[in-house]
Amino acid sequence: MKILLDECVTRKLKSCLPQHEVFTVTEMQWQGLKNGHLMRAAIGQGFDMLLTIDKNLVFQQNMTRYAIIVAVLNVEKSKISFLEELLPSFARLLPTFAKGNAYLIEK
Q1: How confident is the model at residue 36 (pLDDT cuts 50, 70, 90)?
Q2: DSSP assigned state of 1
Q3: Whole-prediction pTM value?
Q4: In what order do the strands lie in the sheet with 69-73?
């Protein structure tokens, strides 16, 4: 799966997802793009998922308009230790994800 890590997610998470093709917003040179523009850019480059900690994103966008999965990691900070705690839940739920939807990942 091709995953884009949102700007608010530490790039350290990339090494925790070796089974996926993971890029950061910075690597794609998409810093500062607003959510709708970011999702369109990601779709245009063949990304399957936007991984974020921005819980507001799902309320700001009509997810059905975008052919991408948005996974929201429910943490207060983008600290790798907090994010790593959610990876088992993420891996368990991943097969159920569908494009055009957003998912809140919790412990």
Answers
A1: confident
A2: -
A3: 0.93
A4: 21-24, 2-5, 49-52, 69-73, 102-105
Alpha carbons 78 and 44: distance in angstroms, whole number: 26
Supply 51's token pair. 């991984």
**Environment class of 53 (CB within 10 Å of its CB; exposed 0-12, middle 13-18, buried 19+):** buried
Distance (Å, whole) CA 30 – CA 36: 12
CA pair distance 92, 106, nearest whole angstrom = 11
Q: What local confidence, expressed as pLDDT, does residue 59 receive?
A: 72
- Locus of tokens 């091709």: 2
CA-to-CA distance for 52 and 33, rounded, in angstroms? Answer: 14
Domains of the chain from N-terminus onward = 2-105 (3.40.50)
**Separation of alpha carbons 34 and 21, rounded Å:** 23
CA dihedral 27, 48, 7, 25 (to 10 degrees): 20
